[in-house]
Amino acid sequence: MEKDFDAIVVGAGFGGIYMSKKLIDQGLSVKVIEAASDVGGTWYWNRYPGAMSDTGSHLYRYSWDLDDLRQYPWERTYVRQAEVLAYLQHVVTRHRLRQYMEFDTEVISADWDDSSDLWVIQTSTGQKLAAKYLVTAVGLLSRQNFPNYPGIGQFKGELYHTGSWPKTHDFKGKRVGVIGSGSTGVQVITALADEVKHLLCFQRTPQYVVPSGDVVATPEYRKEINDSYEDIWKQAKNSQFAFGFEESKNPTMSVSSEEREKIFEEAWQQGNGFRFMFGTFCDISYDEEANKEAADFIRRKIRATVRDPVKASKLIPTDYYARRPLCDTGYYQKFNRDNVDIVDIKEVPITHFTEKGIVTSDGTEHELDVVICATGFEAVDGNYTRIPIRGRKGVTLKERWAGGPSSYLGVSVPDYPNLFMILGPNGPFTNLPPTIETQVEFISDLISHANNQAPALINGTKRPVVEATVEAEEKWTDLCDKMSANSLFRKGDSWIFGANVPGKKHSVLFYFGGLGNYRMVLDDVIRAGYKGFLGY
Fold first, then answer.
1. SS3 assignment, position 239
2. Is residue 83 within 8 Å of residue 89, measured between CB atoms?
3. Going along 21-127, which residue ranges are E strands?
4. Where are the beta strands (DSSP E) in 153-287?
5. Would the CA dihedral through 29, 33, 36, 39 be positive or negative?
6. What domains, with CATH codes, occur in the chain?
7. Are 339 and 284 in contact (CB under 8 A)?
8. How confident is the model at residue 3 (pLDDT cuts 50, 70, 90)?
């Protein structure tokens, strides 16, 4: 079989765009396959009202084009969906990458052919393509977790999932129900509260939400960022979460209660969920006493903000402060409006849909014109189990991961030669663009090294064949398990461990060692001659 391309990249979001550029710069022939009609990935599909990054505008972009970093405009300290999408479109145009991309095309299957050492990809447009390398940039949060309530198909009103939002909507004068109160639910509820006739939040789990601190970016602030961009990126890439702040090294109980309150208040006023959880003290995520101090502070803020005690009691979390840290632009304040209310679906679960709306277990029929499912995604491995990707033994990744997904470094899987994943299982839990850059650069360097060493690789093949060893995968999986063992995150029902998908086995999906440590691990792998990969 003859190859059509050196590499096929699946996905044209942050990862796919940079991956294609790096490989094209190596002189390789590259095809990017994207299901959407344009670039953007997550930011193409998630057009729901209020969609916003919780990373500072200056860091939610690529670091490798310093001139563009300093010149490209952004108006506020946090970027909205439309701005991220426009930025990615700009990057593709600036670097002339669109010619390598094919849109409105899905990968139907991908099979490794041992006789030719090529990946054979079938697409929704009827193409059969062969490539040396298959790089998946399908995103962490892209496979929708759509609820399957009885009768949902009978509902006569409008039904949406936030992960596949229409290009336009008009909810003025309508009764709107939102199922879910995670990051997406918080954003869409905040954005819609002022425009709809009635907004009903169907909440399973109340959240700890910190203000974002989003403000207009003044010319002085932008100049300060531009003048120090190189140092900013150096700090971010060598920190734990890459959010642009110094993570605290001080335990919560190492200071007096008065000092603790002052530190929490300063972080609350400054904004950002990650900064509040990890920039105040070092032990909130794993020490129960420390966690309670932070949780109690946020609970007091909720009581002080929400005037209706009944609404406030429903909004106040009772479990650990141990989910993905959230931030908002006025979430709790919206519940002071008369047209915004909550249904606690742990107390009165949704039983079924009717033509008119949603029925809960107390027999109440909530009549609605619009239902929005802010129910999240089957994170990390969801898209890999949707597409049949078969390795050298003919086994799909879905079958191989039946007991829980695993990989080496979040990048490679044994028996799947020349398959590289961006943001695969057990990659770092961090701000995503810096992690994506880190993995793209590692993968592109590994491919370059493999191409240069091709004659000496395994089985005497003249084609470069690269895959992780079983031993390396097992050690990495064990490390990820041990690093998360003491985390309070592991004790909650969080998508971070797959707990948001009914019937899915809870498993470790991330490396909790931080981006700085992860980058050091990758450096060690390279210095040791790509330790953990067959053929090296």
1. coil
2. no
3. 30-33, 52-56, 78-80, 101-102, 107-113, 118-123
4. 158-161, 175-179, 198-203, 209-211
5. negative
6. 5-143+378-527 (3.50.50.60), 152-373 (no CATH)
7. no
8. confident
